[in-house]
Amino acid sequence: MSQRDTAIHLVAGGLAGTAGAVVTCPLEVVKTRLQSSKGVGLPPPPPSGASNSKRVCSKIPQHQEAKWGYRRTMGAMFAYSKQADRMLMSYNYQVQQCARAGHARTAGRMTLIQCLRHIVQNEGARALFKGLGPNIVGVAPSRAIYFCTYSQAKAILNQHIPPDTPIVHLSAASAAGFMSCTMTNPIWFVKTRLQLDGQNITAWQCIKRIYAKTGVRGFYKGITASYMGISETVVHFVLYEGVKARLMAARAMEGVPSDQRSPKDFLEFMAAGAFSKTVASCIAYPHEVARTRLREEGDKYRKFWQTLHTVWIEEGYRGVYRGLGTQLVRQIPNTAIMMSTYEAVVYLLTTHFNNSFYENT
């Protein structure tokens, strides 16, 4: 691969990542809040059964509660009738419903619209774009490094093993993900802290606070989870390259030259990118929850597997998939915009430089 081609992929990757990040930033903020242990902080809305539970609880007279409490205490000494047992079971169920109505977890019931509305009402509309600064600063070099490394690794591997095979795409995507995570993790760490912070602090204030508490090593907290996330990128690009190859083969059968692009082609690239990213996100999503928890303030979450185990024990399987719906809603437009922008910029720049070359010769 020539230096010109490398520069083209570098510019295309940076522009593609920036376009996707700006458009989907509000969804990124909501997703990060849902993944955290604190959630968004929305007061729990009345559940469908809460009003009925409260109404049932309010109807229970105080002398009746005392009477049933006495019966429960003496239950080991006296045999009750079946009717009394049913009354006790009904009473216990009602008490449990009252408790759940008052202490149910919020994050599990929040919708995307509720989260957005809550953030706007309590922190202002600007809060939906928290972390956008580090995102813009980081997404361009991150995507540029990724796409550049991916293209170069694929070109090198194609020279030594059968070209454009799944192992080539997998190895190139792994190398690109590792390089991108290592070089840009501090930027994403600051972005996550800003999105989780309920105060309007600047990125510089956040950086100084992190450095004062944990030093340089603090900016790399959660990088293990980022490395685990390479599996998502690998699945994404392997699927994307496979779908893209099939699309190109279909074009070849129709007699369309491979160096020409139409609006239909870019729509197909968008669909291929959205499909591949959705599948990859569902498979590897728990690493994102672990990464967000590791980037929170405090020492409760220290290592990747310890974090996943803690979340699983405390919140169950739903905990390790918190925010997945928002992630999918965000990833579909983000990936579609990113991949189509990348393909469009590569095509336009390549065409421009090729035309300039032929004109000069």
Class from helix and strand fractions: mainly alpha
What Rg do the Cα atoms give?
A: 27 Å
Order of helices and strands: HHHHHHHHHHHHHHH
Oligomer: single chain
Strand content: under 5%
- The helix tally amounts to 15
Low confidence ranges: 42-60, 65-108
* Biggest sheet record: none
Give the N-to-C terminal Cα separation: 21 Å
Give the proportion of residues in helices. Answer: over 70%
* Morphology: globular
How many DSSP-defined strands?
0
The chain-level mean pLDDT equals: 76
Task: Please tell me about this protein's structure.
The structure is a single chain. Helices cover 75% and strands 0% of the residues. The chain contains 15 helices and no strands. The protein has helices at 3-23, 25-35, 50-59, 62-73, 82-103, 112-123, 132-160, 166-196, 203-214, 223-228, 230-253, 263-284, 286-294, 304-315, 324-360. The protein is globular. It starts with a helix and ends with a helix.
Helix-strand blueprint:
Layout: H1 3-23, H2 25-35, H3 50-59, H4 62-73, H5 82-103, H6 112-123, H7 132-160, H8 166-196, H9 203-214, H10 223-228, H11 230-253, H12 263-284, H13 286-294, H14 304-315, H15 324-360
Brief digest:
The protein has 361 residues and is mostly helical. Helix content is 75%, strand content 0%.
Characteristics of this structure?
mainly alpha, 75% helix
